[in-house]
Amino acid sequence: STLVWTMGGAKVAAPLSAVVGIEHLAGPVRWLSDSTPDESIQIPYLPDATPTPARFDHDAAGLQLRFAAHPIRHAIATKAYSRLTYKIPPGFRTFRAAVAIDDSSPAPYANVTVRVLLDGKLAWELPNLTSAQAPATLAVPLGSAKTLTLEVNYGQNLDVQDHVLWLSPALLK
């Protein structure tokens, strides 16, 4: 079988076996990693340390983010303490993601509290997330909220190895 579609006015064909995914742009999913947050804060634990800004879909070296040795197409990498706030466009009903400690290097001391806030109010929380845990999946109903905030706070071990990945973070219609 062959998949045929129009791209820029030209017909493009590909064997169906070569198609690994189809993403409907401007459709029912909006990837947060493709959006610029209205607020992006990272506060290092030590006052003289340099902040580590959030990274979107790529690591600090420009390489695609990975988890469990697999490339992740949509992800946000953060470090404790961080806070990213987004305006919620009309029509979106749910925030969906998975959250895990970044496994790109050993992190036996990582321990964070992860939160999702809607209009500044707590909507979901996972205390004491560690590298020993599988990714935690979440689906948070947005209701009438106007803003969505992703927060990673220090856990039991201050900020040691507290690098967190928000995996496939998306707003859903």
Describe the structure.
With about 170 residues, the chain is mainly beta. Helix content is about 0%, strand content about 50%. It has no helices and 15 strands. The two termini are about 30 Å apart.
**Helical fraction:** under 10%
Largest pleated sheet: 6 strands, antiparallel
The dominant shape is globular
Question: How many angstroms separate the termini?
Answer: 31 Å
Number of helices: 0
Give the beta-strand count. Answer: 15
- Overall pLDDT, averaged? 89
Structural class: mainly beta
SSE pattern: EEEEEEEEEEEEEEE
Beta-strand residue fraction: over 45%
Kindly provide the radius of gyration, computed on alpha-carbon positions and rounded to a whole number of angstroms. Answer: 18 Å
Poorly predicted ranges: none
